[in-house]
Amino acid sequence: MNCKIATIPGDGIGPDIVREGCRVLDAVGLKFGHSFSYTPVLAGGAALDATGEPLPQATLDACLASDAVLLGAVGGPKWDTLPGSKRPEKALLGLRAGMKVYANLRPALMFRQLADACPLKSEVVGDGLDILIVRELTGGIYFGDRGRNADNTAAWDTEAYSIPEIERVVKIGFESAMKRKNKLCVVDKANILETSRLWREVTEAMKASYPTVELSYMYVDNAAMQLVRNPRQFDVIVTSNMFGDILSDEASQITGSIGMLASASLGDSGPGLYEPIHGSAPDIAGKDLANPLATILTCAMMLRYSFSMEKESAAIEAAVEKVLDAGWRTGDIAGGAEARSRLGDKLVGTKKMGDLVVEAL
Ligand code: NAD
Ligand code: IPM
Ligand code: MN
To answer: What value of ipTM does the predicted structure carry?
Structure first.
């Protein structure tokens, strides 16, 4: 199979991790007889510097014309003082909306090899953690009306959701639960927010179609607490754009590091958008310190969801396990000072970690 992938290296650690992701895809292609071709395009700070726009139309066009899009990360201190419409992050919103990828699947999976890197007690995480956060991605407060009053003494951002927007993402939540442990938790703030109350009404009207799924509701503040108190109670969480953003970073730390968490953003048709959940990590950019595994595992999600290459996807995941089994670690998953000092030459950088996964394949 010949797959056309638009790549958006972006800013900070983005180019380094995307490079490793593509090398791993190439290794999969070689092993299984597929060819992956890449069209690198500009977005974020890199695009601002080159064109003055965070998301040039040519980038969106190239993404829409591809079979799948791989994005590293955008943003950084250099562009932090620009007005909202000219910030690198605006490119992400434009891409997500332009590609109509409303469902962002963020699995929080703890590899048993990384139990030492998990900050929770072993009796809390038990033999591992496997949660899927389904984050609504093209609505809510990220896209609602925002602004300032005339004399610049007040500002507002608006959370708004329509019934069809809620229905389509909750449907993904139910369907995902049916492929897993049949548990769905809608996380919201229905004790305060009218949008959350609408989410609950819509979910109630849908639940009869999914009789095998055990459905629950939880307020987001409690969910944030329950994630560290007893994370294994969750199977699939479906939630709004901003709550999903926050809870997925929290869940990532339970798995050891945000450098391990992949994501897939999908719509009803057209290419999927694949990105690790972390950002451009300006503090470690250009130092060969970034963990490329989130991006590599994101490529595995791409193979599974966009190309139906289940065995190829599983081969990437198995290669990552093999590398972790052999004790190789980047700094973020090295554990505490003592564990790190015991690692010796098994403490590696971005490039070497990519090499190891390629070799394991
Ligand atoms: P961040 O995720 O970039 O970094 C948070 C912390 O995690 C940092 O200490 C960083 O070093 C570490 N980290 C992140 N990814 C890592 C990896 N692969 N390996 C090892 N350590 C890793 O979040 P931030 O610092 O809040 O944001 C930095 C910039 O990235 C901002 O401009 C923000 O807007 C942007 N951002 C972009 C995306 C995206 O493009 N999808 C996502 C989140 C943040
Ligand atoms: C993410 C990021 C983005 C988001 C930002 C950079 C716009 O945090 O992909 O998780 O909030 O969606
Ligand atoms: Mn985020």
So the answer is: 0.98
